Structure to design on (425 residues):
């Protein structure tokens, strides 16, 4: 793989990229005024037919960077009756978003795009594929399912995009991705987009791409400058009360509250819904129809607060998000980067808060090392971040007398199992 090259030159206008008049009209209609660095760097190389590994954070306009050259080079159904472009993504929500970008930028053209993902009846997807489609966006598992059923044939595919490639490998999609790539024509063009390029991504590129050119569109700092980042030190039992106080203080335009588990997400949502209007949740246990409904309402600005797991930590572009609150400190540093990346998108300002318990100091340090930046400590005036010790109720306290601390055995003795005595014969 070629040495990584930073994208330094940004044309002032999309006209400088040699795009067609119909594409320029679609971009103007979509409100795209000038190309972002990744669009300026990737589009010309994709139009030249090169394989590219693009390292870029979410929120930099990378979806349009690969959608535009695909739409510009699609052949007529008479020339290529089958699927011509395949875009693989890690999550259902991202599949819906990318399909929306394809539909938005194909204004004025007769382009058919189908999203293939689990949680939806497969019959409806099969029917859409039978009617004919040029572009397929899907998660690897469902795409492989259609290939096995012969409802998706890849003989005419000339472009494959691996979007959020590091995330797809993180969640175990590598075998599925390799099976799909082996089914595609060898002379295809492959574009790989990833926030990070660890060794597994490099090996994937070396094996399945032809002389890929690597371009680094990431900023020098992983978290963009427009995002202010703070942390609170708080006991786990006081987190919810701190969350309520923080929301009352900040009055966010839109906020995502990230929790670590599906059960925790549902529990926080139920408690928060009793106190706050315009709140909903999204996690893996929800049916796909419910997830689609929640994300649609959030995108349209009908929801102010969204409690979520990391299922929406990557790739979801909602421009109105002003605040990110990490109710649970993320276990992995990259998850923090992608959570925080939900705000401050496309140069907008944003703010992120992380709740850190005393046991999670190590996680905070690793996050700061990863982003090469110290988070600022924040405090809530008049708020007790530590819970008072629970007094031991004794007969004396029940009678109103002062409590007497009951001596506790040493920790090692407290965990020791009771000694067993052999019965005398």
């Amino acid at each position: 793989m070629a040495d990584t090259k930073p994208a330094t030159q940004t044309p002032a206008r999309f006209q400088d990229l040699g795009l067609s008049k119909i594409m320029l009209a679609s971009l103007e209609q979509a409100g795209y005024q000038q190309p972002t660095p990744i669009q300026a760097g990737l589009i010309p190389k994709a139009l030249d037919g090169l394989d590219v590994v693009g390292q870029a954070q979410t929120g930099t306009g990378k979806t349009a960077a690969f959608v535009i050259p695909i739409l510009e080079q699609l052949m007529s159904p008479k020339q290529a009756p089958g699927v011509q472009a395949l875009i693989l993504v890690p999550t259902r929500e991202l599949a819906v978003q990318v399909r929306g970008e394809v539909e938005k930028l194909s204004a004025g053209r007769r382009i058919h795009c189908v999203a293939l993902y689990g949680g939806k009846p497969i019959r409806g997807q099969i029917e859409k594929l039978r009617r004919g489609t040029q572009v397929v966006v899907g998660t690897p598992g469902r795409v492989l399912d259609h290939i096995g059923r012969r409802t998706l044939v890849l003989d005419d595919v000339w472009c494959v995009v691996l979007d959020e490639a590091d995330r797809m490998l993180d969640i175990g999609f590598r075998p599925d991705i390799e099976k799909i790539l082996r089914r595609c024509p060898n002379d295809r063009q492959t574009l790989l987009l990833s926030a990070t390029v660890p060794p597994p991504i490099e090996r994937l590129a070396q094996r399945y791409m032809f002389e890929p050119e690597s371009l680094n569109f990431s900023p020098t700092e992983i978290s963009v400058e427009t995002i202010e980042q703070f942390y609170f030190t708080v006991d786990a039992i006081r987190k919810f009360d701190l969350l309520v106080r923080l929301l009352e203080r900040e009055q966010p335009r839109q906020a995502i509250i990230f929790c670590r588990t599906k059960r925790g997400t549902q529990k926080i949502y139920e408690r928060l819904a009793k106190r706050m209007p315009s709140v909903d949740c999204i996690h893996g246990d929800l049916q796909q129809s419910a997830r689609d409904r929640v994300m649609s309402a959030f995108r349209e600005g009908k929801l102010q607060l969204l409690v979520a797991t990391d299922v929406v930590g990557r790739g979801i572009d909602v421009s109105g998000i002003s605040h990110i609150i990490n109710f649970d400190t993320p276990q992995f540093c990259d998850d923090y980067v992608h959570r925080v990346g939900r705000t401050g998108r496309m140069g907008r300002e944003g703010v992120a808060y992380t709740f850190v318990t005393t046991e999670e100091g190590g996680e905070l340090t690793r996050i700061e090392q990863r982003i090469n930046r110290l988070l600022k400590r924040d405090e809530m005036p008049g708020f007790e971040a530590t819970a008072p010790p629970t007094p031991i109720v004794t007969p004396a306290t029940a009678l109103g007398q002062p409590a007497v601390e009951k001596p506790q055995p040493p920790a090692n003795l407290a965990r020791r199992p009771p000694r067993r005595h052999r019965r005398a014969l």
